[in-house]
């Protein structure tokens, strides 16, 4: 991995350490977090975070990004949410405000620790240090309104696509095939229309069936007359 990194802003030893961490995150991801590895650039690391259950972000998937500076790990990375989210500690532009990425930063903090802290922020926001003042004020004064607003953002911007059951998929593909075949019959120049239109304008099962029923319908009265005649002859005997 380290040999594939092309960014020259980071020292080789930092690139090797990042490559090791990213490999570990890829093989053993933290719960609810999936890191998107870009072998060509370790200075911008993306991750998809599942909204924790029991929060207004449940059932959502939020993409975030960590941007590493030239003197990383001596200085903390900057964190951003790419997915829009209504949260006290995340600005409308996506900037993340958390002490781990500011005054509490320690060069020994690894990427795993940073990602876990960000996900915990979705569980327990800190409205006292809000970047989104509206969300912070709403959280302190009326949690129900805050949760409703946050759920709305989640449903619009971060909702997971629902997987359709197999039976539904099969029925949908069948209906599409039916629609396509019927559309083909209506296309100009179609063989079925060119061959049938001049001779039989109303070709189809509904028109062929009466022709078969015609002889049967005329034969029934004749059979009845024969039966009546036989009955009369029997009476005479």
Automatic annotation (TrEMBL):
CDD domains: UBCc_UBE2S. SUPFAM superfamilies: UBC-like (SSF54495). The active site is at 97 (glycyl thioester intermediate). This is E2 ubiquitin-conjugating enzyme. The lineage of its organism: Eukaryota, Viridiplantae, Streptophyta, Embryophyta, Tracheophyta. The keyword Nucleus does not apply. Residues 227-237 have a biased composition (Basic residues). Keywords: ATP-binding, Nucleotide-binding, Transferase, Ubl conjugation pathway. GO terms for molecular function: ATP binding; ubiquitin conjugating enzyme activity. Belongs to the ubiquitin-conjugating enzyme family. Residues 166-209 have a biased composition (Polar residues). Residues 161-237 are annotated as: Disordered. Residues 13-159 form the UBC core domain. Pfam families: UQ_con (PF00179). Its EC number is 2.3.2.23. PANTHER family: UBIQUITIN-CONJUGATING ENZYME E2. Gene3D superfamilies: Ubiquitin Conjugating Enzyme.
């Amino acid at each position: 991995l380290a040999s594939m990194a092309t960014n020259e802003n980071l020292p080789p030893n930092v690139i090797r350490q990042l490559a090791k961490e990213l490999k570990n995150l890829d093989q053993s991801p933290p719960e609810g977090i999936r890191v998107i590895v870009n072998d060509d650039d370790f200075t911008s690391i993306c991750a998809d975070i599942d909204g924790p259950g029991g929060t207004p972000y449940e059932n959502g998937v939020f993409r975030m990004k960590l941007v590493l500076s030239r003197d990383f790990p001596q200085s903390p990375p900057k964190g951003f949410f790419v997915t829009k989210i209504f949260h006290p500690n995340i600005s409308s532009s996506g900037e993340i405000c958390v002490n781990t990425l500011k005054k509490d930063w320690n060069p020994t903090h690894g990427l795993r620790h940073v990602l876990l802290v960000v996900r915990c922020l979705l569980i327990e926001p800190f409205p006292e240090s809000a970047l989104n003042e509206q969300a912070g004020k709403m959280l302190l004064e009326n949690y129900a309104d805050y949760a409703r607003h946050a759920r709305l953002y989640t449903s619009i911007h971060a909702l997971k696509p629902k997987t359709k059951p197999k039976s539904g998929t099969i029925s949908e593909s069948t209906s599409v095939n039916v629609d396509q075949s019927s559309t083909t019959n209506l296309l100009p120049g179609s063989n079925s229309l060119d061959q049938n239109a001049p001779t039989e304008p109303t070709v189809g099962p509904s028109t062929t069936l009466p022709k078969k029923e015609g002889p049967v319908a005329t034969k029934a009265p004749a059979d009845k007359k024969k039966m009546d005649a036989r009955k009369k002859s029997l009476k005479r005997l």
